[in-house]
Structures are given as structure tokens and as C-alpha cells.
Amino acid sequence: MTKPAAGAARSRLTMLLSVGLVVTFAVAAALAVALLVRPPAPEPSRGAQPTRAAFPVAQPVAFVIGDSQAMGSATINPNSTWVARGVAGLGYLPYVQGAGGTGFVTARPEADLEAFPQAYELWTKPKTPSLIVIEGGGNDITAQDDDITDAAADLIEVARADYPAVPIVVVAPIGDGTGRRAEIADVLEQVAEDEDTLFVDPRNWWSEHDLDAYLVDAKHFGAYGHVAAGAYFTAALREAGVPVAGADHH
């Protein structure tokens, strides 16, 4: 009676071993397939640079000297005038000094305001400007040409002494191309040539560009006029040879 029982046990053992072998083979086959189709490991990035913190770069400053065309009025702040907008259009941060009603020769003693060359010594000036813009002459209509010439030259020379490597732009009075303002434009053009500065001549912009439509009085723009004239001034500065702020010109 023990032999049949022993045979049955061996049969069950043989069956279990067979099942085990089948399972083992199936697992091995699955692993082999997985190894064959596994995507390659990503290569390490080449030339990767460590991340560095970004620091703000100081915007180049334009030191603007001028009368009410640059300084504005009760409703127009200095950074919104056509002169300031013009330099800002080339990427400069305008730093404006001056006073309405003053000029190269003309002062306003009743308001304790000096003419440009004398006022220059009193102003707080930027430490390291990248551009100097001198706009004015419109209030010097009663001054003599020689006096305007001397005062403008004096201002350029003292500014150049303070900032020897900084380009200087002389800007004539804006106007309709006629009268004493146009004559002063001629005087300042000669000064710019003698002093080897750049020169921008807006003497006839009121008529040439129809900007007189934006005048709120005989000589001054409202807000829209400053925007419109500022665009023309940016183009004129570029045409005169003023570099875009931050450009490498060495």
C-alpha cells in the first residue's frame, strides 16, 4: 500500500518542479526583454554653467542742462519734457538741471536764478554721466551774440573739465526757423564747431514737423507736444552721432 502513495508523491513533486521551472524561465525572459528595450540613461549635460545671481546694471545717465524746454512747467515734470524724452529714447536716464526763463546769458535775479555758467557751480551734478546735453538760448533774445558765444563756450569748457571723456551735445532753441531764435541757433552752431561738440538744430521744428499745433502758448508744448517732439529729438541725437546708451564704441 505504500508504493502507490510514494508514486503519487513523486508525481506531485515532479509537477511542482516543472511549474517552478516554467515560472523561472518566464521571469528570466521578461527581464531579458526589459533589458533589451530599456531606454538609455540620459547623458550628463555638457558645458553646463552654474547658476549665478543677476545684479542690476546701472542705466547710463545723461546730464541735461536747459531752460523751460528741458525743465518743464507746473504740469510737465523735467523727465517728461521733449529734451528728457529724447535722451531717454536712446536709453539714457535724464538728470535735468536748469530753470525756466534763464539761458547762457540771461538770469532771473528776482527769483534768485543764475544764468547757466554761474548756476552750474551751484547745481548738484551727477557723478559719472555718459552724455551731456546743453539746451538753451531761447531766453537770450536780448543778449549780444558775443556774450552768448562767450557764455556758451565757458559752460562747455567747465563741463568738459569736470567730465573730460563725456560727449557734449549743444541744442539750439526750438522754433519756427525765423527771428532772433534762429539767429541764436546760428551762434550756437558756431560755438559747437569751435568747441568740437555735437550739435542738434531744432530751430524750425515747430513748422517743419507741424509741432506748433501742440503749443499751449507761444513757445511751450503741452503733454502731447513733448511726446511728439521727443521722438524727433531722439532721431536727431542719433543722426548727430550720439551713441545708444551702453553701446561699446571702443
The named CATH superfamily = SGNH hydrolase
Q: Assign the CATH topology.
A: Rossmann fold
Number of helices: 8
**CATH class term:** Alpha Beta
- The proportion of residues in beta strands is 5-15%
Number of domains: 1
Helix and strand run: HEHHEHEHEHEHH
> Which regions contain 5 or more consecutive residues with pLDDT less than 50?
1-55
Mean pLDDT: 85
Amount of helix: 40-55%
CATH architectural type: 3-Layer(aba) Sandwich
What's the story with the biggest beta sheet? Answer: 5 strands, parallel
How far is the N terminus from the C terminus?
111 Å
**Shape annotation:** globular
Query: How many runs of DSSP E, i.e. beta strands?
Result: 5
Strand order of the largest sheet: 2-1-3-4-5
**Spatial extent as radius of gyration:** 39 Å
Structural class assignment:
alpha/beta
Summarize the structure.
By secondary structure, the protein is an alpha/beta fold. The protein has helices at 2-37, 68-71, 82-88, 116-120, 145-162, 179-194, 205-208, 223-240, and strands at 61-66, 93-98, 131-135, 168-171, 198-200.
